[in-house]
Write a structure and sequence with these properties.
Structural class: mainly beta
CATH class: Mainly Beta
Distance between the termini: 65 Å
Number of domains: 1
Strand order of the largest sheet: 1-2-3-4-5-6-7-8-9
Number of strands: 9
Radius of gyration: 24 Å
CATH superfamily: Porin
Strand content: over 45%
CATH topology: Porin
Largest sheet: 9 strands, antiparallel
CATH architecture: Beta Barrel
Length: 165
C-alpha cells in the first residue's frame, strides 16, 4: 500500500513533457587596427530541441571606423540562412536579414546624435528601409534627456525620456 506522500505526488503528476534544450555553435574572425578600424565576421548555428526541433543558422559581418575622436561610423549585416522548423507534419524554412548603417557624433559629454539607417527583411516579406534617430542632451553629469524616433511595423514612433549615464 503506497504511503500518503507517494499518493499525493502521484495525484499531481502531469503527462510526460519534454524539456526544451538549446545549443549554440559560433565562430568569429576579427581585425583591430588600434581601435580606429575594427572588423568582424561571424558564422553561427543554433539548435533548439523539445516541443519541436528548430535550427537557425546564418552569417554576420560588422565594421567600425572611428573617423575622428568625435565621429564614428558603424555598419553591420546579419543574414539568417534559414529557420528550419522540424515539427511533423509542419516543416518550414524561412529566410531573414538585417543591414544597418549607423553614424554617431559625440561632442565631449555635451551632446550625442545618432542616425541609424536600416533595412529589415522579416520572414516572408520584401523588406523595409527606415531611418531612425536619437539625440542625447546632458542635463547633469550622469543624467540626460533622450529624444528618439524610430519606424516599426510601418509606423513612425517618437519618444522622450531620461537616461542615466
Amino acid at each position: 500500500m503506497p504511503g500518503v506522500l507517494q499518493s499525493a505526488v502521484q495525484s499531481f503528476q502531469t503527462p510526460a513533457a519534454q524539456a526544451a534544450r538549446g545549443e549554440l555553435l559560433e565562430t568569429a574572425l576579427g581585425f583591430d587596427a588600434g581601435g580606429r578600424l575594427t572588423a568582424e565576421a561571424i558564422a553561427y548555428r543554433e539548435y533548439a530541441r523539445g516541443g519541436g526541433d528548430r535550427r537557425l543558422e546564418g552569417v554576420g559581418a560588422s565594421i567600425k571606423w572611428q573617423v575622428s575622436p568625435l565621429i564614428s561610423l558603424r555598419a553591420w549585416s546579419l543574414r539568417t540562412g534559414a529557420l528550419n522548423v522540424l515539427t511533423l507534419p509542419y516543416t518550414a524554412t524561412l529566410p531573414a536579414s538585417r543591414q544597418v548603417l549607423w553614424a554617431s557624433l559625440l561632442s565631449h559629454d555635451a551632446l550625442r546624435i545618432d542616425a541609424i539607417l536600416h533595412r529589415d527583411v522579416p520572414y516572408g516579406t520584401r523588406g523595409v528601409v527606415a531611418l531612425d534617430g536619437d539625440v542625447l542632451v546632458p542635463l547633469r553629469p550622469h543624467l540626460a534627456v533622450d529624444l528618439t524616433t524610430s519606424r516599426r511595423d510601418g509606423l513612425r514612433r517618437y519618444a522622450i525620456g531620461l537616461r542615466g549615464r
